[in-house]
Amino acid sequence: MNFQGFSGRLSFRLLLPLILLFGLAGEGFAQAAAIVFATGNASIVAADGSTRRAERGAALVAGEMVDTGEGKAQLRFRDGATISLQPGTQFRVEQFRFTEQNGRAAEEDMVVMRFLKGRYAQSAA
Q1: What is the pTM of this model?
Q2: Of 45, 27, 44, 24, which Cα lies nearest the Cα of 35?
Q3: Residuewise pLDDT in 10s, the chain (125 residues)
Q4: What is the Cα–Cα distance from 80 to 77, expressed in whole angstroms?
C-alpha cells in the first residue's frame, strides 16, 4: 500500500478548508485605521480582551476598540477619513471594507462603528 500518496491527499484535504477559511477571514482582519497620534493612557482593546498601547502607527482592525482613558487619540482610516477621540471615549470599529478604486470607494464598501461612550470630532477625507 502506498501510504505516501494517501497521506499527501489526506493532508491536502485537511488543509484546503483551513486555507479557504483563513482566506475569507483575512478580509475581516485587514487594517481599518491607524493611530495618527495618542496621548495619555489611550489603548487598543482586541476582540479577545487583550490590550496594547495606542501609539503612532498602530493598526486598528475590525472588532477592536480604542479606549482613550484620560488621553486622546486620532485615527486615520484607509479611505482617508479621520476621527479624533476625546478623553473618556470608547470607540469600536465593528466592520470595515474598503477596496480602493482610483481613489473612490466601491459600491460594496462599508464601515460600521460604535461609540460605547465618549465624544469625538470628525473630519472628511
Answers
A1: 0.69
A2: 44
A3: 444 544 444 444 444 444 333 333 444 457 999 999 999 999 999 999 999 999 999 999 999 999 999 999 999 998 888 999 999 999 999 988 888 767 676 777 777 888 888 766 666 55
A4: 5
Domain locations in the chain as residue ranges: 30-123
Q: Are 68 and 117 a contacting pair, CB within 8 Å? A: no
SS (H, E, C) the chain: CCHHHHHHHHHHHHHHHHHHHHHHHHHHHCEEEEEEEECCCCEEECCCCCEEECCCCCEEECCCEEECCCCCEEEEECCCCEEEECCCCEEEEEEEECCCECCECCCCCEEEEEEEECCEEEECC
